[in-house]
User: Fold Orotidine 5'-phosphate decarboxylase from Klenkia brasiliensis.
Amino acid sequence: MTDPFGARLAAAVAGRGPLCVGIDPHRELLGAWGLADDVEGLRRFTDAVVGALAGTVAVLKPQSAFYERHGARGLLVLEDAVAAARAAGALVLLDAKRGDIGSTMAGYADVLADGHPMQVDALTVSPYLGPGSLEPAVRTARAHGGGLFVLARTSNPDAGTFQHARLDDGRTVAQAVVDTVGTWNGDDDGGGDGGWGPRTGSFGVVVGATLAELDVDLAGLRGPVLAPGLGAQGGTPGDLRRLFGADRAVVPTVSRDVLGAGPDPAGLRAAAERWAAELAG
Ligand SMILES: O=C(O)c1cc(=O)[nH]c(=O)n1[C@@H]1O[C@H](COP(=O)(O)O)[C@@H](O)[C@H]1O
Assistant:
């Protein structure tokens, strides 16, 4: 039986540091690397990032949209990259922001299951259809040692329009999302204190590093926080410390600010190492 995702993530972070690098091969970036916006360009970009970084960073986060837009052959590139990244020791967080109900949600979550041709370690999901809508994904994650990161307080400027809306009980939507995810991190699923360790929960939330202030209470989360918005969106390592302190299980994720240093593998590695050093300092 595979160890729970939270424990595996904590072990990866202990060995490699917390940095997650997003693989976002969008049109402009392919062009900046001198690659065509086609499947061959996609493959060369992806192979370069995985080859340069999968042996050293804790987590790689491919963005599914940039593979789906190239059709079935794009998905084959993603499938190969996921296998190569995991073989090199990186955890793979598939960024697809899935959200649906019942059997459809279960279908999306099958990407976490043993035997899936593109099995990943964790998946980003959207809670918009309600807390119960994500239960099938929670079940699949538990059964296969997978993890989920649920969108709670995202990094985009207008995120608060929905995420600050209030429930009848006065909590913001973002807070209700965090509280819901905290209930999934029960004693059997890690259920630690919100820091790194073998009991780090397998169910996390997304909270942007771009926030002016931390306007959700993470005390009951007991799982990891994925923090995007660093670099290109303006967030800094100082913002991370200001928002989350030093003791919380936070996975800072950077895409453009590392990917822009390619295609030279040494350049990619140097950019990731720079971020890792700044995050450690
Ligand atoms: O889930 C995410 O990764 C995510 C959540 C969020 O709140 N904001 C956010 O930018 N992201 C993702 O992070 C990537 C952009 O990273 P940067 O290029 O570093 O800004 C994209 O793939 C976004 O979908």
Summary: The chain has one domain: 5-280. Residues 5-280 form a domain with the TIM Barrel fold (CATH 3.20.20.70).
